[in-house]
Amino acid sequence: MPICSRLIPGGERLEHAFLRRAALSRPDVTAEDAARLFSDHYGLAGQIAELGSQQDRNYRIDTAKGRFVLKICRADYATVELEAQNAALRHIAGKANSPRVPKVIAANNGADILFVTVRNANYQIRLLDYIGGQPLTRRKHLPAVTVAALGALGGRLALALADFTHPGLSRDLQWDLRNAEPVVSHLLPAVRDADRKQRIGQAMDAAMRRLSVLKPEFRQQAIHHDITDDNVVSLPNDSGQLIPDGVIDFGDVIHGWLVADLAVTCASLLHHADGDPVIILPAIKAFHAVFPLNEAELRALWPLIVARAAVLVASSEQQIALDPDNGYVSGNIDHERLIFDVAVSVPLAMMEIAILRAVGQLGDQDVITGERLLPEIDVSGIAVIALNTQSDLFDGVAWLQPGLEDQLLRDASRENNAVSTRYGEYRLTRTVLLSPQPAPTCALCVDLLLPAGISVSAPFGGILKFTDGGLILLGRDAALHLTGIDALPGPDDFIHPGQPLGLVKRTAGDANVLRVQLCRAKDIAPPPFVSPDHAAAWMVLCPSPAKLLGFDCDAPMPQSASLLSRRQSHFAKPQKNYYETPPQIERGLREHMVDVEGRAYLDMVNNVTILGHGHPRLADAVHRQWQRLNTNSRFHYASVAEFSERLAALAPERLDTVFLVNSGSEANDLALRLAWAASGARNTLCLLEGYHGWSVASDAVSTSIADNPQALTTRPDWVHPVMSPNTYRGPFRGAGSTAGYIEAVMPVLEKLDRDGEGLAGFICECVYGNAGGLPLPAGYLKDIYALVRARGGVCIADEVQVGYGRLGHHFWGFEEQGVVPDIITIAKGMGNGHPLGAVITTKAIADALEKEGYFFSSAGGSPVSSVVGMAVLDIMRDEKLQENACVVGDHLKRRLQALGQRFPLVGAVHGMGLYLGLEFVRDRETLAPATAETAAICDRLLQLGVIMQPTGDYLNVLKIKPPLCLSQESADFFADMLERVLSDGW
Ligand code: PMP
Q: How confident is the model at residue 766 (pLDDT cuts 50, 70, 90)?
């Protein structure tokens, strides 16, 4: 607690206390004085450091026996309160499952508290042992695990103190939330900024009104009353997230409201909230699970948090007004202002519902019913349109264009004279791209396009109020908010049920839209749209107007969780999904994806969708071809001939023969069979840390332990993995490592030579995609291809991930190494997600397969697949996507490298173009992979609107391989969000 004022009992307690606080100076005890005190009274000697304190003076000492803290306060401080603190610490330490707290260490004479004199001034001193760990204060972002752990910690401490009593707990304390009202009234006159003063006053009044009816139910007991981000100590978990498990600074321990303890904790979280108060909910849930709160306490939590925020900000504002140069206060004031601003950013009623919901204690609410709002309208003729992510209305439409909602309403009104939107719908039209916060997409209102002049009637009785754009009917159970209406009665009139309220307003272009919204809280102006995280609570507060409208205007709720469990019941388990709680994504646009709540994500991993999502030209081409013909390549049609010709033209000259299949696995499988057929041998070399597919042969040469933990022990005997030429973390590093890696291949080749079984070939990615986009050492492939060819083997370049323009600087990965392979395999991007794969090789190698019969793949090279393949090539050319990968990729790489200058966790940035890998390490010397951190960073990036996943054998590399249409703005958004995660925490 920054300021600890002890109020003087009796008389003008508060008044005295504030004056006293301003006048009190901190004990004048230097480090040398402290060293003497340590040695004289505790027999301790060691290194001394001062710890911060607003009013007391604290010194830490490091000794051979351990670390201790000497707490020095003024002699006139009530000793019984110090005794209470010590007794509380001992009491907690004696309880099972209580948090870590400091131990009280007696002085040489056996006393816990000593009275000492330093340069003629008298003090009281105590010694505590020092409990290690980090506070939460410096982490700007606190993840839900940390927030929940803090709540649980508070619950455990409150439980441990539940049966603690001590005479020193009955004290007057500025921070006691039972005193919040007089404290704020006292401080407010000194606040200079009139606007802030008014806001504090108003917030306090509203909070106090709500508390007054709940107070009688509050339980009282011994509470710490200052369990904040600053007063807990935490240890990092595997992912580097802080888990608080100890509590310090018992200076505010008091007999007070149990719920106030949690309110203080929650308020301290609000400056870590990024403006979103719902981040406190995991703390409340966790506290409640340990120490259940009663209903009144739960309902009181948010008003108490507002009161705490008001006390904090009013104290600092008053202090800064009195003492503008006080660095300590000015250092804290931004935090406190932020806490207050977040606390008042949402109505009390909304947070009350959110809290009750979070702990499963929100009962059913009454449905708001009444007379028909639109008595002249035949509701059976109303067309209800869907504006959610899955709505057909957005297919082939630029759904972010301004004015689209009105246009869709007008389009629908051509066939129906009334059209309605849906309540509770997450509108795609409200999606915001490249936003760290989810946009307010959820409609708490219903918009109706109606003939102008239609009568609108009062569904229930109430007082009429006029607002800027419309009117409010304040009924008994709810307020009805209407815009787009010309009111008939006057303001403040009492309106009877069924009485006309007004007529639908005529607007330019006949967009006569009546907006209807209900709100149970009558003293707020509810927002018409809220963000998905707030929607559930707001929908309780602003219920559906369906009963008043007389037709079903409720949007179906997304069923993402139950869909996921359906998927898990029937979709085979080895087929994993990204993320533990994945968003349900149902639409895409260029490099963006949108979930069913209208949350947009920047897709930074979709190496398959090179053109981007929802490409209209590709969709048209596919649609046209499906209408005409789809069959197999044993028929004669133009597209298969044309596509094969175009693929051959993309490859180096002698690779002029094409097989068309459906995936990368198939392409690699076929390539291996071709190598076997062409060489007459079977032994195949591949790289460790590689992935080539799931089919039997392509899996056999896949050695990545991230994909298959058993990969290294289960390779069939024809597979001969060689050392991974990983120039970042392999045994040979950086430039000049080529010879080492080639040397490492020699024993394998020499053994094959000795056995005399021959060598079929060698397969690898020419830029090491699976390891995170590392380039191979210079000249590596030249050497190894020569060694393989000298033994009659065939060189296969797996270009499934890195080829086809993604590298920007090269169309093919092998160009980077200056070699030409004998077989190229491609898939992924060549179909933009349509199942398409190809093998491009020489006529001689292709012909070698003839002896095994003919080759046929039912859908490989079908008319639809060939048309897709050609459309992808056309679009890549016309939209200059390889050039874009080069320019934007280079820009992005520079931005990511700059992060490496600031954050030691960034070990390296691999790759080129739009195939980049950012490798996280715990230590730049040992290169210990930061695996758990990478997973947590990916989860945090998802919250900030970025889809990113780990790759590499240690899953510690961000695989950055977005659609090739990635704009520079999107690349910057990704770099900004990553920077934010690295600096604010994850
Ligand atoms: N080769 C490489 C380098 C790959 O990355 C992959 C897929 N990740 C494949 C082959 C297999 O491709 P598919 O999933 O299309 O079968």
A: very high
